[in-house]
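MODEL INPUT / OUTPUT PAIR
PAIR INDEX: 1
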Amino acid sequence: MSALPFSDFLELLRAKGLGVGLHEHLAVGKLLAQWDSTNRDQFREAIAALVARHDGEVAAIRNLFDDFYPQQVVPSEPSGSATHSLSDGEYRGIRYLRDKRVWWAAVMCLALALTVALTYRYYAFLNVPPPPTGPVLSAAGPQPPLRPTDDLQPPPSVVETLVQAAPEPPPSDLQPPPSRLNRSLIAALSTAALAVSLLAFWGKRVRAGARQWTTDAWQAALASLPGPYHAPLVLKDLVTRLPRRDVEDAATLLARAFSGVGRGKELDVQRSLRETLRSGMRPQLVFRLRRVQQTVLVLQDVSQMMHAHAARVESLIVDLKRQGIALERWYFDGDISVATQRRNGPPVPLDVLAKRREDWPLMILSSGLGVAATLTLPNRAWMNAFRKWTRRVWLSPIRDPELWPAAVRRLPIGVLPMTRAGLLQAATILAQGEGASPGMLSRVRETAGPVTIAEVEKLKQLASVVPYPTVPELELLRQRFAPDVPERAVLHVANDIGAYEGAPIRMSDGDIRDHLNQLRKTAPALEIDVRRYLLKVLADSEPAAGSAAHLRWEISSALHRVQIAELTSGDARPAVAALTALAKGPLWRELRAAIEKLPPSPQQSEIRKAVGLQKRKDEPPAFQDRTGHLPLQSFRWRMPRWQDAALAGAVALVVAAVGSFSGAFRLQASHALDAYALEYRPSAAADAGELRIFTRDPDSSAPRTVRLYRDSVPQDQSIVLDPQRGAIVPLPSGAEPHVYQARAELPGGAFALSNTLWAPSALVIIDAQPWARVTVRSPDGRVPAMTQVTPAALRLPEGTYDLSFENGGITPPLTQQIQVSSTGQRTFRFDMPGFNPSELLNQLGITATPLPARQSAQ
């Protein structure tokens, strides 16, 4: 029966290289004492959390637990969430879901489709007013169907038909129509923004889910690989033994220890004679004392913190035994207050052991890193037990006293380094019982000498080639490539507790790149030699094929080959092809982390591209289970959360707010110019004549109900237009001339307008030879000034008007005055000063002919 619970399984973990000691045994015991669950998987995770130091050990403990305590599989009905083998289409779909380009294409297609739909909707229902047409003479504009009285009117003249009339100025009260917010367009645009942003946010979550599923799948594939998982390097050339001469000298000193009570069989003649003379010649026989070698009590620290020094300590004990030194070994797991006669055996308090072996020499082999925790114990009996041994010494495998923990100096025992001077002094103390004086200890420590920064930097450069070496691996590199650097400098590089426990020496990625780059600049040949030697070490340490450790072995080998090929200008294509294949496997993340530690080089971009570092660092490669035996969960679609909807709603609100206040989505209504035709015709029945209003385009959507405005003042009655004939508004007899216009109100505050004209008025044609710009002014200012190019047709009220002609300096200007009346002259022609057409024709060699027709027309 085991002394501690689960000791068999914990011993298995310790045999596999995991850090399991007495503390872990006690921790598991305390866990069992408080465990109230029957869930096997939860207990497995709890043990992994107690013992493991990193993710790799967690996976290893899970696998070993499953092998040591296999789970009984109970057949059950398949459910929707049960694990199964996925098809190729599902793997391909998950790969597409992880692709950012696919989601960007989906977002862009949705945005484009919504844009096209909004544009079509906008222009399909947009009411664009017709372009304005220039006002023309009544005879030139579209005419309504003739009425019976129309036959009595004289037909329009040729001049009235060909010459356009100048438009009357619009009334001053007609302001631009008010603008209004296009709420429907903003609502549609906000809905489109909501859909696009919701797709983007949801797609981000789906991508994250697909990425996490792929990462978990690769973790499952890694966990399914058989062990070993972290196979250590076989360091055949590593020297861990102390020099033979040092061990022999120490063994010689230890062999001189003897007991003062032993009687031998050999007669001591000189002392017998001396004692006989002193006793008055009475015979006295004195025998020589028998030298009895005493057994040395050794307390060996087997905690995790001694893992890096275990080989050296073990070789020292073996060498001492080979020299004939009697040793009795006891073990303690960091806690010096408790010892065991065998590893993980029943504990014995130190004070009890002191009562049993108090007359024996005591030698403790430990780094002392667990003393600080032991000093916190309330029971200090173990501290008094030290004083029972008159011959006691503490040997530390840490050779530099500066790295010793301060708690060791608080113990009533002398601490010496495991060097030649320290070993000889320890043998002297154990053999002769001499106490370790402070001066003696200081002399022993001074023999070590200081460690320089240059020595530490040289070791860091060697460590950057591995990278992350353990203390034994760095010591091997020091022995082969930097023997001038003292051994104690290794622990100045590995100055953390994890390195003492056997974990790799941690350096930042930036430090690794800098030191490796410095080594490549200063000593590229040394780097080549180191990498070639590491390939030899890897060849000696190849683990079982198909295991996780073998994949890590392949990664290390390929990286060294790539760097050697780069330094020697060799062919790196086989090594790059191997890295490309490994980058698509379970150790893709470890491979990328190793690639990032390499210094910049011409082949760096090719290698980074081969392993997928051009993308995101945590973007896993595409996964596909070729075996079909992995317990993979089906991909679970993640529906949009309320956070995604809230963010998308916020984007839509921002779009709506920007559209509302920017003015880009406001509808500016426009007046429909010349939607109606307004003409004046004198009538024989009424002296003032009549106004005719009709729609220019009978098929237009202009309102049929209009109001007549006189001098910008609306009349009381509305006028309903006949679709074919329009409407006639008679003017009262003797009415004064006014500006008339027909208007109809449109939705949005705009108006459908007709042309403006004076009524009663007369159509006047003004011409100037050869040509001119004529400005017509009313002396009383009733009619605004109008400027036209001759010949000009103007409808003017009866009265006197001043005419001003100018043609840009071709001829002198001309000023005339005309009288307009309904029964008077309608056509006014003038010759500009200095204009003689006959003389101009004569200059051109053309004989002028009289124009009787023109003179008669005038």
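PAIR INDEX: 2
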Amino acid sequence: MKKNRLPAPLIASLLAFSWMFFFFSDVFVHPNKHLFNDQGDGIKAFFVYADHIKNDESYHQQRNMNYPYGQTFVYTDGQPAIANAVKFFSSYIPFFQTHCIAIYNYLILCSFIVCAWILALIFQRLKLPALFVILGAFCITALSPHIWRISGHPTMSYACFFPLSWYLFLKTIDSGFKIRFILLSVINSAFWFFVHPYLGMVITFFYGLYFLLMLVSKSRKSLGSIRAIISILFMVFIPLILLKLYTFKVDHHLMRSEFPWGFWVFYANPATIFLPHSGFFAPFFDALFKLHSAEWNMEKLHYIGLAADLVLLFTIFRLIKFVAKKKYSRLITPVRSTELNISLLASVLLLLFAMCIPFKFGLQSIVDHLGFLRQFRALGRFAWAFYYVATVFGVYVFYLLVRVLNRRKLRWLSTSLSILFFSLFIIEAYPDIREKSKWAVMPVNLFNEQLLPQEYCSLIEEVNKVKENYQCIVTLPFFHVGTENFGIEYEVDNIRTSCVVSYWCNIPMMASSAARSPILEGKNIMQFFSPGYIKKEIENDLPSKKDFLVIYNKERLSEREYAMLENSAKIYDNGKYELWSLSYENAFRDSSKDLWTHFVSENDSLADHGIFRVSGYPDTLVYSGYDSLLSDFVYKGKGALQAKKKDFTVLFYAEGKLKPDEDYTVSFWYYNKGELRNQLLCALEECDREGNNCRWDIFWEPRTSMVIDGDWSLIEKKFRVKDGKEKIRIFVHGDENSNQNIYIDEFLLRPSSTDAFSNIKSGEDSFLFYNNWWLKE
């Protein structure tokens, strides 16, 4: 009589469920009560998903962000494949809309359970005994790097995406490329592309590398057939083509960023892959390798665990022995499982890419000419494939070792090593999931009306009363993230408030946080805050002449934000949040005459200082129009400073000229046209009298400027030196690998309490110069 097989995948998934339930029990019991993250990318991801389901009329566009332009939904991090399915069902069953966050939470948690099930199926393919199948699948799931994403970037926390794709790919090859398996693989890859493009790209790269390695190794003669080649190409490219065709059809926004920042920053390194970053063992390795906390960025962390490390070290030792014995063919076949050998090698190649190898070794020019590569701002994510393949490989090789020990009748040793091996996974997994679950269950679901804090309830009630009079909300402090060239990072409260009010009131916000946002749209939105003497391009794009509803959370504002608030009228205050009304007329009123009037009224009290009329008695007033310099682009006058972005370009140098008890303002006009141009560091350097012990405590960036006049931005910063006797240097510096030019014009350094006026002629036009604002007569 045939024995029933132990349902190892079921047991592994039950263990995974018990593990997740232990840490996330309240989420399992009350899924609509929690947000895994109510800050930054977390609240943004939940908002765009929930808002799209509740408020958007279109399945393809997000209305309530990036006003007046909106945003193509696939770029919002809103997992369109899932959000649109829930949106469709919610039109028939309201439960799907009111409990969409509960569905999101369950999908994330259940992905770990599915991950254990699929890993168990992979181990069964490798013919491991049931106990190793169960423990291996559970332990790999427990240590999964996707745990880190739950409370950080939830859209990327689906732990099952790679094991499922890997398993389907192997099944497709085994089937001889039967149509149903090919379609399953294509549908699976396309689905993950429409959850988040990075998930789909990891799968696509892995499939492509696996196929190329199989062809090179000639491990299967059947792969040389036309059917096999067409099938593989179909599986690799069709999902990507579907995404491209879809975005081409529904995305009508122009000039999306082609070079997102981060390619040369967010890549993995050996420490983030092979060394513990938390828990019991971390202090020892920190001391041994002198690691720094900066290494442990979420984009880089894909730690495979000490147990897998030891197996890989053992494997490397064996490979060295093969070389010594001239068994070179064994270098690519460390174990007898062909599919595991090829999978490991493919994942290693992906790991090298995730580590920015070979590009970080002086190949900047190659990357700049391959725009496809520069689309990836976080290369470290491609190490996901290596995590799962390397840990599966580790369990498999460890089983082979245990089998050898058992054959030699050393069962006591094999049992002891097995307990230690699998215990290491759990010991290292526990601190991470404990920490992440603690933070993940704290935020309440702000898209559940019954759980809204009182200050939000009263604010939302008031906005709902008056929203018909306004075309959008403008949250102060402002934020706009995604263009890479124009924008301001969000603070915790301002992005949360914007999202909550926009969702419940169904009113669009001018603020935005989305990947690869159109550059010109971001520029126009930032220019909305420019002074009135500048014509604002966004006025041509507004569909209405209604007023603007300003939400102010009483945090510190920039000068331009404060000017907007002063130009508005307060209409509501609940103690934490204020509502102000900014009229359309005030938003776009030309204030040139006001400034001229101010100059005329103050003129008699001003004193001469070189070409300027100034208030007070400034100790330092430095101005340079760079008119004697040749430049491809000029803001005013005859010349401008042209320099290489990669160089340290000094704009001001002084020793003992600035007072430590006085605020100074430095400003200059910067050419903003051209992608990557605004990715530049501007800094104040202070050094001691010998030029040593230098520090950069004050720095700023051109992309954050809200004063934009055509292709030029006014870069302005208020600062105070710590020691007036030190050497001071103001400089700009960009990417050391860049060959791009930068252009700077009209440099001014003045005491912040001093106003500087002058009548300056530029070409045939005359201007009133007012603190580096240029008002045409």
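PAIR 2 NOTE: The longest helix spans residues 411-440.
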